[in-house]
Design brief:
By secondary structure, the protein is α/β, with parallel strands linked by helices. The chain has two domains: 186 residues, Response regulator (Rossmann fold, 3-Layer(aba) Sandwich), CATH 3.40.50.2300; 127 residues, Rossmann fold, CATH 3.40.50.2300. It contains 13 helices and 15 strands. The strands form two sheets. Strands 7, 8, 9, 10, 11, 12, 13, 14 and 15 form a nine-stranded mixed sheet that branches. Strands 2-3-1-4-5-6 form a six-stranded mixed sheet, sandwiched between helices. Strand 13 and strand 14 form a beta hairpin. Helix 6 runs parallel beside helix 7 and helix 12 crosses helix 13. It is globular and about 65 Å long. The chain binds benzoic acid.
Length: 405
């Protein structure tokens, strides 16, 4: 009690002195001292905050994104815009409830210049909100939440991956063109699954198909048996699914174990078989999916990317590694334009908006809403590869409904 009483006058007199001295300095410098204090010291590092899942069903996706990002930075001698990079990390656990607190840690505590995150669409919504409130630069290296480049779009929000609508739309078009009429969908019940199905349905039904039943289970539940039995009883022409990471491995194996692999054609957005083929083994052979990356592309950038990634990490890259690599490329476009001075935000944003990203997937540009305009490949599993068999939709742009930029 006494201690507190003693402290208060001390703090308040210190506070009064500080305020007086800051005010005097501001008056003397015409406010320029304050303006300068917002700028990084010459040669200061660029602070990058990874907010990614490092545990749970999406853990491998988070690591691949970070690997890809770091590899690009290493290839630039560890610098972007002439500045060294300092990394901060938070495991977001794919838990939307923890997203605002985790994003705030990176932005307020670590004072990062840019947040790179995340994988899960529900978590993404929390990050977008905090990034907008603080006007912090955000690069989304996976999560497809349509809102991020739709109604919640913002000048400081960029994405190097896809919107959930995009790969679903591409597959809807493919199945309609194959003359399929009656399709059942099955996903996790959260934005990624629901929005993928929405994109699928939009394209499929516009060309005469019908989604006869939409089935789902909570994320990250993997008790698929009852739903697989229900799908079989509906006797559809085909099934369209969204699953990814560890859940995708389990689903594809359960589908085969239920004896449906050669009975009902199974299709999905490419996350069903990307980064998962080793674990899925024979169960995945022959599966067709649509995605903005594939094995067997012939561009030079992809060839060197794959060789370098295999050499650096002793792993084959997947779509998540590509998206992380491209997040670093996009940041480099901004950082180079301002020689690493990330406080010059309008110029950083302008350069990022104008970037032509030389991605392993093929060169892409960003839409007005800051989402990639890109080709969607049709792929077929062959051994350990999602071999490209064609382009399902060329230069597909998300409709960005509700975005006012
Ligand atoms: C998502 O939640 O947006 C997502 C997660 C994994 C793969 C693709 C999308």
């Amino acid at each position: 009690m006494q201690r507190t009483a003693l402290r208060r006058p001390l703090f308040s007199s210190l506070h009064t002195t500080l305020v007086a001295s800051i005010s005097a300095t501001l008056l003397a410098t015409g406010g320029s001292a304050l303006a300068q204090s917002a700028q990084p010291a010459p040669g200061a590092k660029i602070k990058v905050g990874f907010m990614l899942p490092y545990t749970g069903t999406y853990a491998a996706l988070g690591s691949a994104i970070e690997n890809g990002f770091r590899m690009y930075v290493q290839q630039q001698g560890g610098k972007l815009g002439g500045r060294d990079i300092e990394y901060f990390k938070v495991d977001d656990e794919s838990d939307p409830a923890k997203a605002p607190e985790n994003a705030t840690k990176l932005i307020k505590r670590d004072q990062v210049d840019v947040v790179v995150g995340t994988v899960h669409s529900g978590v993404q919504m929390g990050i977008v909100k905090v990034a907008k409130e603080n006007n912090t630069l955000l690069i989304i290296p996976n999560a497809g939440a349509d809102e991020a480049t739709g109604p919640l779009c913002g000048a400081n929000i960029f994405r190097t991956s896809f919107s959930n609508w995009q790969p679903g739309y591409a597959m809807g078009q493919v199945l309609a063109e194959r003359g399929m009429k009656k399709v059942v969908t099955l996903t996790w019940k959260y934005a990624a699954g629901e929005q993928s199905v929405k994109g699928f349905k939009e394209a499929f039904e516009a060309k005469g198909g019908k989604v006869v039943k939409e089935l789902s289970l909570p994320f990250p539940n993997v008790e698929f048996q009852a739903l697989i039995t229900e799908v079989a009883s509906l006797k559809p022409d085909a099934v369209f699914v969204f699953f990814a990471g560890g859940g995708a491995v389990k689903f594809v194996k359960d589908w085969q174990a239920a004896g449906l692999k050669d009975k009902i054609p199974l299709y999905g957005s490419g996350f069903l078989t990307d980064g998962t083929l080793e674990a899925q083994g024979t169960a995945a052979q022959g599966l067709e999916t649509t995605l903005h990356y594939a094995d067997g592309l012939t561009n030079a950038r992809d060839k060197t990317f794959r060789t370098d990634y295999a050499k650096t990490y002793k792993l084959q890259p997947d779509v998540y590694a590509v998206q992380g690599y491209d997040a670093a490329q996009l940041l480099a476009a901004g950082a180079n334009a301002v020689k690493g001075d990330m406080s010059r935000k309008p110029e950083v944003i302008k350069a990022m908006e104008a970037a032509k990203v030389d991605s392993p997937r093929g060169v892409f540009t960003l839409s007005k809403a800051h989402n990639p305009v890109q080709d969607f490949y049709l792929r077929k599993v062959d051994g350990r590869e999602n071999k490209v068999s064609g382009v399902a939709v060329k230069a597909l742009a998300d409709p960005a409904r509700g975005c006012r930029l």
